[in-house]
């Protein structure tokens, strides 16, 4: 589903190269974890997948269902089924969460030439999804992410992910700032989305989240490259021994 | 809402320089020759069958006007206006004052048909009611739950049709064109006209007093709550024509009225002048709510053409416990010079000003309000949201003052500016003056840019860039949109989105 080939990318503003020849393949139905020390390029990778303009791809390609997405803007990629759950979701003052959900869902439907959702249907879907994440409907009347706690923000991200039904989900440090209860709820939400036709990329610093979202593959990112790949035991090994050994091994 | 959606879709396909109301209507016009002189004024007055006192009033204003200088203090630049190169009167020939829709020139009705937004005049004029069964839902999808709206349509210099007159008359409300009011209700007009904005007030108000051609007149008698929204729709159609409308609204003791005006003009290379005067008078316990959706032609992407909008609007809270509230959504005009103000004369009176001013392309906006606290325990509230995009300049200019006797005057002002892009400017110029030590004035101002982070976040959810900007901007202006009559709120939001198209990329 996702194929990243020899990707090189730099920050447009100052030319700093962050991704340096990254290769990664994630199949449909797979949950892939990307781990790595701070500054290894994890978040940058998520931004590049989503099409953020601050980064420029200088070499290589990103194929999604076999086709390059490099020429697509963020909205087009989203409509094609790529979703990024942000580490720091943005506040949108004055826009009720419910209104935002409606606009986003209908924008994607429009891009796929589908009719906008009727209000009762929309409400039904939102209620169901919010219920499964233990979210109060009253919260959805508040402006999106404004004044939300860290846990509420992450839950709102997962709510959007559920409702938009993406094919490729990228979760950027979704566990950061969550207490254990919130973490379980979020993980349950993600697990519920596991399906044979959907790929999930979990970016995380710690192994903790992977106890709840058990990955099929684990990839270690360092200095903009995948330096080691393995199964879930690799995450456990990292937790016990840290990154130093693997980095040395690769060097 | 299909008509509205269709229009929006069509507009989305065109560029910022293709103003969506830019059609011209081929209607035979009856015009005054170009130029301004006492003869022009006599011509206008005669055309309108005005009594002698009205002509005298106009001539006095004209004689004063010739001694005045055009003001230059606003932060706007434009070539000098040649006041002799303007037609001061233009009337559709075939409409000598219709009393019903059937008498209206069909060409004129076609104009309304083309408009759709923001007023849906065609339906309203035709007396078509919105389905009453449409439900308000949590997602705020549909707000057409409103009742009927009475409309007065002003086409260049003449008021062409006023709807629901009979029903309003039953409630005791007078809603007609100012020309008709001068003929039919001279005592009321004499008593109130010029009592808030005197003929000597300022350059453009004085000019308006001399040459005003039409406008609306509203009188709500003691204790009456006006049974429906009143609305006036202004359109400048004829070339080189100035539009000088005059609106006078009086709410007697305990009366209430909500009034909305909408404006559009065709697309032209040359600039057109619009200099209106609006006077509001609220007696004891009366309340007037005045909303504007201004969408005059803003000029093309290079800044050519567009309306010069020099407007004097002022409300007088003459009675105790009276309240006047201005709400404006300003998206059009090449130049806007406009400060809807409140004189808080009565004790415990209250003034409000809610404003959204959107500028794009080469538009220049210098707008704000004045809250003049004269009575005791008076209060006022100003919420101004300026949005600048393209190469536009957007200035908030406001004055809040407390007279020596205005004990316990209160004001809260909040001015927020939002910048889109690198080439526009937002400016805030507040004047605050308290001559009474018990006055409490608060002023808050912020300037922000739509952040790349926010835009990326919204787009990542599949919302295309221009829609994403419109969504963020509409969130920014929410507080003000909420003040608009329900049925206009959605259209105002869409108008803001349309105005900002082409502001990025």
TrEMBL record, chain A:
Record-linked CDD domains: ABC_FeS_Assembly
InterPro entries tied to this protein: AAA+_ATPase, ABC_transporter-like_ATP-bd, FeS-cluster_ATPase_SufC, P-loop_NTPase
Keywords (A to Z) from UniProt: ATP-binding, Nucleotide-binding
Superkingdom, natural source: Bacteria
Record-level Gene Ontology MF annotations: ATP binding; ATP hydrolysis activity
Keyword Nucleotide-binding: yes
Keyword Nucleotide-binding appears in the UniProt entry: yes
SMART domains the record matches: AAA (SM00382)
Domain ABC transporter: 2-248
PANTHER family documented for this protein: ABC TRANSPORTER I FAMILY MEMBER 6, CHLOROPLASTIC
Family designation: Belongs to the ABC transporter superfamily. Ycf16 family.
Name the record gives this protein: ABC transporter ATP-binding protein
Protein's organism: Mesorhizobium alhagi CCNWXJ12-2
TrEMBL record, chain B:
SUF system FeS cluster assembly SufBD N-terminal domain: residues covered: 165-226
Domain (SUF system FeS cluster assembly SufBD core) ranges: 234-476
UniProt cross-references to InterPro entries, sorted A to Z: Fe-S_cluster_assembly_SufBD, SUF_FeS_clus_asmbl_SufB, SUF_FeS_clus_asmbl_SufBD_core, SUF_FeS_clus_asmbl_SufBD_sf, SufBD_N
UniProt xrefs under SUPFAM superfamilies: Stabilizer of iron transporter SufD (SSF101960)
GO biological process, one term: iron-sulfur cluster assembly
Superkingdom field: Bacteria
Transmembrane segments: none
Similarity remark: Belongs to the iron-sulfur cluster assembly SufBD family.
Protein name in the entry: Cysteine desulfurase activator complex subunit SufB
Lineage of the organism: Bacteria, Pseudomonadati, Pseudomonadota, Alphaproteobacteria, Hyphomicrobiales
């Amino acid at each position: 589903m996702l194929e990243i080939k020899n990707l090189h990318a730099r920050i447009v503003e100052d030319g700093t190269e962050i991704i340096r020849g990254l290769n990664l393949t994630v199949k449909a139905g797979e949950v892939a974890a990307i781990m790595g020390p701070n500054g290894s390029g994890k978040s940058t990778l998520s931004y590049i997948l989503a099409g953020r303009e601050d980064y420029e791809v200088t070499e290589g390609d990103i194929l999604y269902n076999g086709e390059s997405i490099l020429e697509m803007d963020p909205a087009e990629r989203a409509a094609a089924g790529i979703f990024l759950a942000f580490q720091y979701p943005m506040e949108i003052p004055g826009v009720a969460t419910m209104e935002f959900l409606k606009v986003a869902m209908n924008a994607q439907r429009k891009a796929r030439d589908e009719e906008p959702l009727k209000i009762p249907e929309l409400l039904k879907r939102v209620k169901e999804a919010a219920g499964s994440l233990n979210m109060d409907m009253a919260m959805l009347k508040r402006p999106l992410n404004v004044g939300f706690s860290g846990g509420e923000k992450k839950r709102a991200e997962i709510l959007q992910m559920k409702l938009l039904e993406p094919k490729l989900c990228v979760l950027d440090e979704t566990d950061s700032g969550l207490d254990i209860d919130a973490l379980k709820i979020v993980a349950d939400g993600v697990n519920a989305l596991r399906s044979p036709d959907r790929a999930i990329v979990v970016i995380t610093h710690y192994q903790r989240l992977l106890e709840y979202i058990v990955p099929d593959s684990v990839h270690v990112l360092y200095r903009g490259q995948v330096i080691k790949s393995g199964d879930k035991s690799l995450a456990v090994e990292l937790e016990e021994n840290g990154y130093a050994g693997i980095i040395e091994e690769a060097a | 809402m299909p008509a509205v959606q269709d229009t929006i879709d069509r507009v989305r396909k065109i560029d910022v320089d293709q103003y969506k109301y830019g059609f011209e209507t081929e209607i035979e016009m009856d015009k005054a020759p170009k130029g301004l002189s006492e003869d022009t004024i006599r011509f206008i007055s005669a055309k309108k069958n005005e009594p002698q006192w009205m002509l005298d009033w106009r001539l006095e204003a004209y004689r004063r006007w010739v001694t005045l200088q055009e003001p230059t203090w606003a932060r706007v630049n434009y070539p000098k206006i040649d006041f002799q190169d303007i037609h001061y009167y233009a009337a559709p020939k075939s409409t000598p004052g219709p009393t019903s829709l059937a008498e209206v020139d069909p060409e004129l009705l076609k104009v309304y048909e083309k408009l759709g937004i923001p007023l849906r005049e065609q339906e309203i004029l035709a007396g078509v009611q919105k389905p009453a069964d449409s439900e308000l839902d949590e997602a705020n999808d549909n707000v057409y739950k409103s009742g009927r709206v009475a409309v007065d349509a002003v086409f260049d210099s003449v008021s062409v049709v006023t709807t629901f007159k009979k029903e309003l008359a039953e409630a005791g409300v007078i809603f007609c064109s100012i020309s008709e009011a001068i003929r039919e209700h001279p005592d009321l007009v004499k008593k109130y006209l010029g009592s808030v904005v005197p003929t000597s007030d300022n350059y453009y108000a004085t000019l308006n007093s001399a040459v005003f051609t039409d406008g609306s007149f509203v009188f709500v008698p003691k204790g009456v709550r006006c049974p429906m929204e009143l609305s006036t729709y202004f359109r400048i159609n004829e070339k080189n024509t100035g539009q000088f409308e005059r609106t006078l609204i009086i709410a007697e003791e305990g009366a209430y009225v909500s009034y909305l005006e909408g404006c559009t003009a065709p697309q032209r290379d040359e600039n057109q002048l619009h200099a209106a005067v609006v006077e509001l008078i609220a007696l004891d316990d009366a309340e007037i709510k005045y909303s504007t959706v201004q969408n005059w032609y803003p000029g093309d992407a290079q800044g050519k053409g567009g309306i010069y909008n020099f407007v004097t609007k002022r409300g007088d809270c003459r009675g105790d416990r009276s309240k006047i509230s201005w709400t404006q959504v300003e998206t059009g005009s090449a130049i806007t010079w406009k400060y809807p103000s409140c004189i808080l004369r009565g004790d415990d009176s209250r003034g409000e000003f809610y404003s959204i001013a959107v500028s794009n392309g080469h538009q220049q906006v210098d707008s704000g309000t004045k809250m003049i606290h004269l009575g005791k325990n008076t209060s006022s509230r100003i919420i101004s949201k300026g949005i600048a995009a393209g190469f536009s300049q957007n200035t908030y200019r406001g004055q809040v003052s407390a007279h020596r006797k205005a004990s316990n005057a209160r004001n809260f002002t909040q001015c927020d500016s939002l910048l889109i892009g690198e080439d526009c400017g937002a400016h805030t110029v507040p004047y605050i003056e308290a001559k009474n030590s018990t006055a409490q004035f608060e002023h808050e101002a912020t300037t922000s840019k739509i952040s790349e982070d926010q835009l990326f976040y919204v787009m990542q959810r599949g919302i295309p860039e221009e829609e994403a900007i419109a969504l963020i901007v509409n969130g920014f202006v929410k507080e003000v949109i909420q003040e608009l009559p329900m049925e206009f709120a959605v259209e105002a939001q869409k108008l803001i989105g349309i105005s900002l198209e082409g502001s990025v990329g």
